[in-house]
Description:
Elements: E1 3-5, H1 8-16, E2 23-26, H2 50-55, E3 60-64, H3 71-80, E4 84-87, H4 92-106, H5 111-129, E5 136-140, E6 142-143, E7 146-149, H6 154-161, E8 165-166, E9 175-178, H7 180-186, E10 190-193, H8 205-209, E11 223-225, H9 228-231, H10 238-249, H11 251-254, H12 261-267
Parallel strand pairs: 1-2, 1-3, 3-4, 5-8, 5-10, 10-11
Antiparallel strand pairs: 6-7, 7-9
Amino acid sequence: MRIISICPSNTELLAFLDAEHMLVGIDDYSDWPNEITTLPRLGPDLSIRMDELEALKPDLVLASLSVPGMEKNVDELVRRKIPHLVLNPQTLEEIGQDLLKVAEACGLNAAPVHAEYLAVIEDIKSRGQKAPNRPSLYWEWWPKPVFTPGNINWLTEISNITGARNLFDDTDSANVQTDWADVLERQPDYILLAWVGVLTSKVKPALVKKRPGWIEMTAIDHLHVMEEELYCRPSPRLIEGAIRLGKLIHPEEFEDMELPRFIKEKQI
């Protein structure tokens, strides 16, 4: 099959199915695994150049609604009658179901990787349940205006299974626009910066340290830059992010946990 992925998380799904060799084109932000680096780039995920996409004659386009604004890509695929599959996972279970869905569409067997994926999640849950406390985590997706994940999001789930809680899990939405005064009042135990679409090296903790009330915060010694690609994309790489988070907040429970085989294989 000739497959095009127009979202990094979908590209990663294909990689976990050992199907990256089927790709003939990708969006500009897809950056994993290394095997995709020579593929044609079709533009940012919110502004895919559809004429170039259509010229590649795909058998299937993997689209996504995981980021607001991607609807126009889907509308254009429909208008041009290009075969496509639209994914929009918000939970770890839904990401697992997408592995099966994409595999079926591509004629692949996802059962082994799906089983391993579920087993690792259960291992993480078991370790998180043994943690002696549940710190509150403020996940910052964007600094100005402040955006953070709400209850309906994989980061709330990852927080829970590693033995913590999302500071904004009382808001029933995928993302929340708020302000620093709200965060300050809630007094998180950890501040975790995962700015969407920003390289880890470009994230600036100094911006947080200039905000009012910073010096008195509970989290003053727990400000961390987290890898955007391990926390902001709905793909199985979230498992690696969850393990790293567990090692950060509950090292005794997670220190001996290794990456699962299905992730290690892709890092070689």
